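Before a computer can learn anything about folding, someone has to put a protein's shape into writing. The outcome of that step, for a single protein, is printed below:
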Amino acid sequence: PKADSLKGEVVEISCYLVDRTRIGPDHAECARDGITKGHPAGILTADGKLYLALGRDFKTANELLAPYAAKRVRVTGRKTKRAQMLGFIVEHVEELPPSPPAKKKGSRKN
């Protein structure tokens, strides 16, 4: 079957679920530490979908994703869904450049 692809930020899921502001460069060290210790890793997409990162053969994807904690990546592998839970079986990770800063609403140059 054709591989799926997904772009987003590598997050430590338990931190993110407790406090959705625990993302980005300011949270990188904590996320990397948690993922390295075995806390669940995930991919948070730009549209707000959160995928549990899974490894092949019922293993975690933590070792593969820890170096990319709080960074934007493109993962290839296979999407999966059960009930409302989204998962992604990660086979390959590629780091992407950071997202450009969001434009402030109502700001104009004259």
About this structure: Helices lie at 13-18, 28-36, 62-65. The chain has a mean pLDDT of 91.
